[in-house]
Amino acid sequence: MKNALMILLLCSGFAFGQFRDQLDRQPSVHDGMIKNETPSLVMGFFNPKNFTMHHSYSLSYNAFGGNGLAMGVYTNSMAYKFSDQLNVELDASLVHTPYSSFSKQVTDQINGIYISRAQLNYRPSENFLINVSYSNNPMLYYSPYGYYNGGMFDRGLMDNNWFYRR
Question: What percent of the chain shows pLDDT beyond 90?
Fold first, then answer.
């Protein structure tokens, strides 16, 4: 019994031992959450510091012609900066109609998930910009009674683009 107790005490002493260079270092919460390993292929390619994401939700009600339509739009705007000259932006929107006095067929045409804007911006110099963009919005966006997206100069390119702000 004494031998077992002595072995247990010796093993517990080794279990709580530490290196001398660790005496001054206090453990931090950051060390427990973040691993300092070499990045994998995905994380080596995708730098989270160059990625931004913004969310917005708008709810509107339109009444016209004796009918009414409430429309909610959740938009997730994402942008990734590959370099100082190249970035990509994407706006994905979820459109729903919580109330409508129109037929179900009309509301089914409006409801859905839309890539409302996707664009690739390349600026090789200060006065030269190449922009490739795609836009897909529900029919009501172009209606004189609903939302309107005026084109590429209304969103992001010149004044409101986080990538080109200095």
Answer: 22
Most trustworthy range by pLDDT among 10-19, 25-34, 71-80: 71-80
Residue by residue, what is the 3-state secondary structure of the chain? CHHHHHHHHHHHHHHCCCCHHHCCCCCCHHHHHCCCCCCCHHHHHCCHHHEEEEEEEEEEEEEECCEEEEEEEEEEEEEEECCCCEEEEEEEEEEEEEEECCCHHHHHHHCEEEEEEEEEEEEEECCEEEEEEECCCCHHHHCCCCCCCCCCCCCCCCCCCCCCCC
Please count the other Cβ atoms lying within 10 Å of the Cβ belonging to residue 110.
19
pTM, 2 dp: 0.55
- Please give the structure tokens belonging to residue 98: 């919580």
Distance from C-alpha of 71 to C-alpha of 10, rounded to nearest angstrom: 72
Mean pLDDT, residues 96-114 taken together: 82
pLDDT band at 68 (very low <50, low <70, confident <90, very high): confident
* Structure token digits, residue 47: 């730098």
- The dihedral built from the CA positions of residue 134, 86, 50 and 164, taken in this order, carries a sign that is negative
Q: What are phi and psi of 3, to 5 degrees?
A: -65, -40
